[in-house]
Amino acid sequence: KQEVTQIPAALSVPEGENLVLNCSFTDSAIYNLQWFRQDPGKGLTSLLLIQSSQREQTSGRLNASLDKSSGRSTLYIAASQPGDSATYLCAAHQAGTALIFGKGTTLSVSS
Amino acid sequence: DTGVSQDPRHKITKRGQNVTFRCDPISEHNRLYWYRQTLGQGPEFLTYFQNEAQLEKSRLLSNRFSAERPKGSFSTLEIQRTEQGDSAMYLCASSPKGEKLFFGSGTQLSVL
């Protein structure tokens, strides 16, 4: 059974700092790995999707990497801004099943 | 593309009552998912449909829960005889072919 773990559970940084959020998964037979953002009381917004054959994906200040062999993914946020404050969730997708989510990392960026 | 729509946004009910939520996916998305999320936790998978067929159900989906997707369009999730432990955010998502998921804003259920 796939299990997804995110470390740290919470993170506070000053504006402008670069940061890395970590995600690990137990079953490397994944179809893709997805990163989402969730604002309080809201639904999830898709940030990046990395196919199993890919190593990384970039969108603006966000870069996500995937290492299937070690069961890890990281989300790198460059030059953080207060507007980046939210909960970031990763999810592993195996063929024929639904996404399995981690519990998320709650990020707070202070100005 | 108007996004995934969920109704209602909030529902307060008394224990023992039945509730029904609706999800309208992005048109032409053939996959539709239901998740449940409690405070401080990631979304937990409940069930998913490909077109009108319900292909997978989590063991979290007790016999008090039922989901339908008639004609492969909108979907409903019904909870019978609600319990306080059912209080959560119920999220719906759709995707074109199991790729990127697009989530709705969710229905927040409070069972008193």
Task: Please describe the structure with a list of short key phrases separated by commas or semicolons.
heterodimer; A: about 110 residues; mainly beta; B: four-stranded antiparallel sheet
Question: Would you write up a description of this structure?
Answer:
The complex is a heterodimer of chains A (111) and B (112). Chain A is an all-beta fold. In chain A, strand 7 and strand 8 form a beta hairpin. The model of chain B has no long low-confidence stretch (mean pLDDT 93). Classes of the chains: A mainly beta (111), B mainly beta (112). The interface between A and B is medium-sized, with 24 and 25 residues.
What does the secondary structure layout of this molecule look like, with pairings?
The complex is a heterodimer of chains A (about 110) and B (about 110).
Chain A: E1 4-7, E2 10-14, E3 19-25, E4 32-38, E5 44-51, E6 56-59, E7 62-67, E8 72-77, E9 86-93, E10 99-101, E11 105-110
Parallel strand pairs in A: 2-11
Antiparallel strand pairs in A: 1-3, 3-8, 4-5, 4-9, 6-7, 7-8, 9-10, 9-11
Chain B: E1 5-7, E2 10-13, E3 19-24, E4 31-37, E5 44-50, E6 53-57, E7 65-68, E8 75-79, E9 88-95, E10 102-103, E11 107-111
Parallel strand pairs in B: 2-11
Antiparallel strand pairs in B: 1-3, 3-8, 4-5, 4-9, 5-6, 7-8, 9-10, 9-11
Please summarize what this structure is:
The complex is a heterodimer of chains A (111) and B (112). Chain A is mainly beta and 111 residues long.
Terminal-residue CA separation of chain A: 41 Å
Number of strands of chain B: 11
- Overall residue-averaged pLDDT value of chain B: 93
Radius of gyration of chain A: 13 Å
Largest sheet of chain B: 7 strands, mixed
Roughly how many Å is the radius of gyration of chain B? 13 Å
Shape type of chain B: globular
Low-confidence spans of chain B? none
